[in-house]
Design a protein that fits this description.
15 strands, about 475 residues, alpha/beta, globular, binds beta-D-glucopyranose
Length: about 475
C-alpha cells in the first residue's frame, strides 16, 4: 500500500483532495432566467464546430439538478469543490449595468450548500465563456476587456467573497488564447495565427493583474482570501537529453506554455526572454515588420509581477520534444515555439488523443515549479483521465491512474519538499468536453446523457477516490 505515504507526510500534510464543475460544461440552462449568451453558446450553435453537433444547452443541467451534484460531492467526502461562475449568468451583457438576481441566487445557494456540508468552494471567475455581448465589442483582443473583467471580478468579490476564500481569476489563458484565437477550435473560433493569441494572452494577464490588485486593496483586508490564475502546462523533456537542440526545444516548449503566463506573474513582470527572442527572430525571418508580436506591459498599469497568492496548476500530460526544423514558413505560435512533440510509446494514450498518461510527469513539473518560481504554495487545480468509446463503469485504469498520480504528488511533497496545498481531480461528473462534446468522459460519476433525468452513477474510480479521501481524513485527525 505505497499510497498511504501520502497520508503521513508530516509537515507537508496540508494537501487536500477535491474537484470541479464549470459553467457551460455542467450547468446547462443556457437561456434560463435571463442568462445572456456566451461565446461558447454561439460557437456550439454553429455547424461543424463540436463533435456530433452537440452543445452545452443542457449539459449535466446542474442549473436545475445542483442538489444531485451535492449528493455526489458528499458521497465522495470532498473537503473542497472547485466551480466556475458563468459571467453571462451573473451579468447578461457582461457589464455591471445589469445584474441578474436569479444568477446571484443560484450561486449563493451553491456556495451556501457547500459550506453547510463543510465543503470549501474554490471559485473560478472565467472558464472560457465570455459573454457574447463583450465578444461583439472585440472580446479578449480588445484592451478594454481588462477593466470590464476587473468590474466583473469586483462584483463577484463583493457578492460572494464573504464566503469564498479561494479564487481563480482566469482558467487556462493559454487554451483561451491559442485554441480560441489561433487554432479556432474553441470559441470564439478565430484563426488569426501568430498575432491574436499573444494579444489575447496579454489582455488576460492585464485583466488578471487588475483583478488581483482590486482584491488586494479593497477586499483582502476584510475577506482574507487568496487569488491566483490557473495555468495549464504539460511536463516536457528533450527527446534526446544529450542533444543540445532537443534540450533547447524543451526549454522553448515550456517557455511558450507555463512560462508565457507564470514568468510575468512569478518572476520578472515580463515574458520569458527565450519566448520573446524566438518570436522576434521568427518575425525577422518572415519579413514581418509590425514590431514585436509579443506585446509589452505598460508601466502605467497595475504591475503583473506578484499577482498570485499561490500557484494554480492544471496538469494532464507530458511530452518529449525536438526542434520542428524547416517549420519557419508560416507565422504562428507553433513555428515561433519550434518544438515538435514526439510520442513516447511507454506513455499510454488511454482516452482522448492528446492525453498520454504520465503520472510521474506531474512530480517533475511540481519540482520544476518549486525551483523556478521560488517555492510557491501550489494547488493542482486540475488533473484527470478520460474515457472515449465503449463505456466502462468498472474503470480500473482510471482508479489506478488516480492512485499512481496521488502517489507522485506524495513524493513531490515528501521527498522534493514541494509545498502542495491541494489536489483537485477533473472531474466530478462526465460533462460537456468542449469541442469533443459528450464523447470524452472525465467524470468520477457517469452521467447518462440519453436519459432525460441525466442520472448520475458512481464509477469504480469514484469509489476508490472516496476511499483515498477517507484515509486521508483519518490520517489528518490522528
Ligand atoms: C479545462 C477543462 C477541460 C479539461 C479536459 C482543461 O483544459 O480547464 O475545462 O474539460 O482540461 O480537457
Amino acid at each position: 500500500m505505497h499510497h498511504s505515504f501520502f497520508f503521513s507526510t508530516g509537515r507537508h500534510s496540508r494537501a487536500e483532495l477535491h474537484w470541479i464543475t464549470t459553467c457551460i460544461q455542467y450547468q446547462g440552462g443556457w437561456q434560463a432566467d435571463g442568462k445572456g449568451p456566451s461565446i461558447w453558446d454561439t460557437f456550439c450553435h454553429k455547424k461543424g464546430k463540436v463533435f456530433g453537433e452537440q452543445n452545452g444547452d443542457v449539459a449535466c443541467n446542474s442549473y436545475e439538478l445542483w442538489e444531485k451534484d451535492l449528493e455526489c460531492i458528499q458521497l465522495l467526502g470532498l473537503t473542497h469543490y472547485r466551480l466556475s461562475l458563468s459571467w453571462a449568468r451573473l451579468l447578461p451583457d457582461g457589464t455591471t449595468r445589469h445584474v441578474s438576481q436569479k444568477g446571484v441566487q443560484y450561486y449563493n445557494k451553491v456556495i451556501d450548500d457547500l459550506l453547510a456540508c463543510n465543503v470549501s468552494p474554490m471559485v473560478t471567475l472565467y472558464h472560457f465563456d465570455l459573454p457574447q455581448a463583450l465578444q461583439d465589442q472585440g472580446g479578449w483582443k480588445s484592451p478594454s476587456i481588462a477593466t470590464l473583467f476587473d468590474s466583473y471580478a469586483q462584483f463577484c468579490f463583493q457578492t460572494f467573497g464573504d464566503r469564498v476564500k479561494l479564487w481563480i481569476t482566469i482558467n487556462e489563458p493559454y487554451v483561451c488564447a491559442k485554441l480560441g484565437h489561433e487554432d479556432g477550435v474553441h470559441a470564439p473560433g478565430l484563426k488569426e495565427p501568430g498575432i491574436a493569441a499573444y494579444v489575447v494572452g496579454h489582455n488576460m494577464l492585464r485583466a488578471h493583474a487588475m483583478a488581483w490588485h482590486s482584491y488586494n486593496s479593497f477586499y483582502r483586508p476584510k475577506q482574507r482570501g487568496a487569488v491566483s490564475l490557473a495555468i495549464n502546462s504539460d511536463w516536457v523533456e528533450p527527446l534526446h537529453p544529450d542533444c543540445a537542440e532537443d534540450v533547447a526545444a524543451a526549454e522553448r516548449y515550456l517557455a511558450f506554455t507555463l512560462g508565457w503566463f507564470a514568468w510575468p506573474v512569478f518572476v520578472t513582470g515580463d515574458y520569458p526572454e527565450v519566448m520573446r527572442s524566438a518570436i522576434d527572430a521568427q518575425s525577422k525571418k518572415m519579413g514581418y515588420s509590425g514590431g514585436s508580436r509579443l506585446p509589452s506591459f505598460s508601466k502605467d498599469e497595475p504591475a503583473v509581477l506578484g499577482t498570485a497568492d499561490f500557484f494554480a496548476l492544471n496538469y494532464y500530460t507530458s511530452r518529449k520534444v525536438k526542434p520542428r526544423g524547416g517549420c519557419g514558413q508560416v507565422l504562428c505560435v507553433k513555428s515561433d515555439q519550434d518544438a515538435e512533440e514526439v510520442l513516447d510509446p511507454s506513455w499510454p494514450i488511454c482516452g482522448v488523443s492528446w492525453l498520454a498518461v504520465v503520472p510521474h510527469g506531474l512530480r517533475k513539473l511540481l519540482k520544476y515549479i518549486k525551483d523556478t518560481f521560488n517555492n510557491p504554495a501550489v494547488y493542482i487545480t486540475e488533473n484527470g483521465f478520460s474515457q472515449v468509446g465503449p463505456l466502462e463503469i468498472e474503470d480500473d485504469r482510471r482508479s489506478e491512474f488516480y492512485k499512481d498520480t496521488i502517489f507522485e504528488v506524495a513524493k513531490a511533497i515528501g521527498e522534493d519538499g514541494v509545498n502542495v496545498r491541494g489536489y483537485f481531480a477533473w472531474s466530478l461528473l462526465d460533462n460537456f468536453e468542449w469541442a469533443d462534446g459528450f464523447s470524452v468522459r472525465f467524470g468520477l460519476f457517469h452521467v447518462d446523457f440519453s436519459d432525460a433525468k441525466l442520472s448520475r452513477a458512481i464509477y469504480h474510480s469514484g469509489r476508490e477516490y472516496a476511499k483515498i479521501i477517507s484515509k486521508y481524513k483519518s490520517a489528518q485527525s490522528r
